[in-house]
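ok posting inputs for the nicotinamide-adenine-dinucleotide job
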Amino acid sequence: MVDTVQDKAVVVTGAGGGIGAALARRFAAEGARVVVNDLDAAKAEAVAAEIDGIAVPGDASEIVDHARVALGGHIDIYCANAGLASGGTEAADEQIWADAWDVNVMAHVRAARALLPGWLERGEGRFVSTVSAAGLLTMVGAAPYSVTKHGAYAFAEWLSLTYRHRGIKVHAICPQGVRTDMLTAAGSAGELVLAPTAIEPEDVADALFDGIEEGRFLILPHPAVADYYGARAAAPDRWLDNMNHIQQKWEAAQ
Ligand SMILES: NC(=O)c1ccc[n+]([C@@H]2O[C@H](COP(=O)([O-])OP(=O)(O)OC[C@H]3O[C@@H](n4cnc5c(N)ncnc54)[C@H](O)[C@@H]3O)[C@@H](O)[C@H]2O)c1
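and the output
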């Protein structure tokens, strides 16, 4: 048991399946009271029933107040997990870019806006952002996803550096491939880049709980991402050449 989690009031967005469902199950197993949010009400209700949680369906951007009431007036831990795997190039429709920005970034900003006043008053609160390795690196074939996940990472980083002396803990989870519906939907680029090292959603939950115990901001369920992130910073052009080789391999396989 992680004592920072037992009896805590937790919200997980996009928890009707995949990584969010694994996080919700793990928080419940550790003794937390969990709100299970998803746009898909039936999926949210199924996971909530399984873990004795509370389903709060709806758009992740709009559920903080409802979730707070459902949990008795206070949220201790908020997992901004819902995300859109928005693929495409610069030519992707305006709507695809707008939806990616809305779900992958602004839902986090709106949640923080609703949570921070109470958390700062109490001097504690924990914000968990499911970003992606694409937020530290970049995903071939997915410009809106890569750009907005960089935004989600930047926002989590900003929250952490701004409020860490006031009791606010922030974690940014940055996995590569995880075997969920989203990986299946990522198509041939996902097959090439992500599938070979894909892990299970439960592995992501394990990595988060290790990070919570160790008080770490950056959660890397695939440890090799630290090396790639370092290589990108140290030698950007060499890193871009390597990524471009993957792009060319992907183009050749189409
Ligand atoms: N699967 C991967 O390989 C992978 C890798 C890195 C990061 N991620 C990130 O992990 C998070 C979860 O993804 P997943 O792989 O579990 O995907 P998933 O598709 O299995 O689950 C995402 C869930 O979010 C819900 N959702 C979508 N938009 C929503 C909204 N506006 N409000 C509430 N719920 C909404 C969907 O209905 C779905 O149940 C995402 O942020 C994703 O970008 C996934």
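notes: The longest strand covers residues 125-130. The mean pLDDT is 96.
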